[in-house]
Amino acid sequence: MNADDAHAIIRANVDRLRDQLRLWDWHIDVRCKRLNEGTAGQCQVQAPYLRASIEIDNEQVSDERELLHVLRHELVHVFCWPFHAYGEHVAEMTEGDSVDSAWTFYLERMVWSVEKLLDAAEKKVGKADV
């Protein structure tokens, strides 16, 4: 997907998706950027400042539906910021890839579960899936 189309879709939808997750008080910057192959999106959270930066690789998404899925997935990471903060704290106190890989696995499973919950809620009220 070209960058101009991706930016337009993001601008048209980011506030609605942010509001669904009750992230009204967060400043969230979303931009398109080339990422590593296999990484369509990533998110950095600065919880003390209620700020987040989301990067989406528009070249790794094929259409609007996939772009919105990646955007919502990264916004769910913002929603789950306490778990991110805890994981960073644990990483500082421990060393070893096993802690990091286990943490990443379970964090992504939690994000996936929240996404399923959002899908179910949208279907219940008759809105289209994102």
Biggest beta-sheet profile? 3 strands, mixed
CATH architecture: 2-Layer Sandwich
- Between the first and last Cα atoms, what is the distance in angstroms? 17 Å
> Can you tell me the residue ranges where pLDDT is under 50 for at least 5 consecutive residues?
none
Strand content: 5-15%
Describe this structure in words.
The structure is a single chain. This protein is α+β, with helices and mostly antiparallel strands and 130 residues long. It has a single domain (3-124), classed as Zincin-like (2-Layer Sandwich). The chain is built from four helices and three strands; from the N terminus they run αβββααα. Strand 2 (41-46) and strand 3 (51-56) form a beta hairpin. Helix 1 packs across helix 2 (64-79), helix 2 crosses helix 4 and helix 3 (81-93) runs antiparallel to helix 4 (97-124). The longest helix is centred in the C-terminal third of the chain and has 28 residues, at 97-124. The model has no long low-confidence stretch (mean pLDDT 86).
Topology:
Layout: H1 3-20, E1 27-32, E2 41-46, E3 51-56, H2 64-79, H3 81-93, H4 97-124
Parallel strand pairs: 1-3
Antiparallel strand pairs: 2-3
Concise summary:
It contains four helices and three strands, in the order H-E-E-E-H-H-H.
Jot down its keywords:
3-stranded mixed β-sheet, single chain, Zincin-like, 4 helices, alpha+beta, 130 residues
